[in-house]
Amino acid sequence: xKLDAESYLKTGSNELRVLEYKVGSLSFGINILKVSKIxxxxxxxxxxxxxxxxxxxxxxxxxxxxxxxxxxxxxxxxENEFKRNKVIVTEFFGMLTxxxxxxxxxxxxxxxxxxxDAENVFAGIDxxxxxxxxxxxEERMVLMLDYETIxxxxxxxxxxxxxxxxNLEKRFTGRRILIAEDSPAVRLMLINEMTExxxxxxxxxxxxxxxxxxxxxxxxxxxxxxxxxxxxxLALTLKIRQSERPDTPVIVYSSxxxxxxxxxxxxxxxxAHITKLNLDxxxxxxxxxxxxEKVISQEPGKELADFTNIDxxxxxxx
Length: 318
Hints:
- By secondary structure, the protein is an alpha/beta fold.
- The protein has 10 helices and 18 strands.
- The relative contact order is 0.16.
């Protein structure tokens, strides 16, 4: 199956394509931009002892070793409720990760405004790994998982770092920053880091909330995720560029570091694209932008090939 690269390159249209898959009796979804390939038959697989209980082992893909996460174990499914038939290989945070699934069903086309924010549904109820809900048809729901939080739980070292940027402590006192990030774990990390650096932080869990906050008062800087319910970060960037304060610096901070994301951010005139979880680069870039320096170095269109011909055996688009 071939995706329309041109429409994705120029996206400010709040579009989302979701790959639906099954784990037991439940239907889950993942943004197609996070998917590298689907493996129908896992070969060169080896179990590795003393890993997290949900990490089954690793397999060799070309010249790379890819860890495999067993979603059935992660979600405490009973063994007879799940068959491990396929592996969805994802690429984000600059790393490859495989997820065992029972079957892959469809690719659905939505708008981000169609995504129901899990925070609005569950309120104070713990929903650590469910970040949104979509409805391909009225009577059926697909759960959108927070894959970033899953990986942060499995790899705690991704959250730990020491800032290499010198003399930035409290440099940003008096500066107001808007953070748009739907992953609670990543959002809290950003809030803590930016507050420690002296920023006055306003944080939103989706692009629509962020846009309302932006319209309410001026900000010195905006840091925005891409994947968010109601309004994605690219649509938010476009609205900011068309607003009364179009020169507000915007950093797109996305777990999707290649497959065309930098090209789309550049096309929509974001000031920079930083791949999560590169906090040193994020803070250094913020410092440069607030000093009036230009930092864009992307080459639009260079990275599109990786996602225009994803290996989607037996997958259809509705």
